[in-house]
Specification:
It is a single chain. 69% of the residues lie in helices and 0% in strands. The chain has 80 residues and is an all-alpha fold. The protein is extended. It has helices at 3-11, 17-40, 44-65.
Amino acid sequence: MGLAEWRKKRWSMKRAPRAEAERWLIQAQDEFGDAEELRQRKRFYLALFHFQQAAEKALKALLSWRARPKKCFSPALFTS
């Protein structure tokens, strides 16, 4: 086994789709809870930001669960 193969096997950070989905869903739930606390404190602009972040993370959980990851951001969009 060459060094490149070893690095790929040893240091791969890919998770199984279900584990990745669970990780994103936990983060989404935490973010939603934070947003709800901010809403109750009438910090609406911050609450809206965190609600939006929670929605994105929940969507990533769904995409990971379906094992069809989509790129949400592409640097190519900003190059001419």
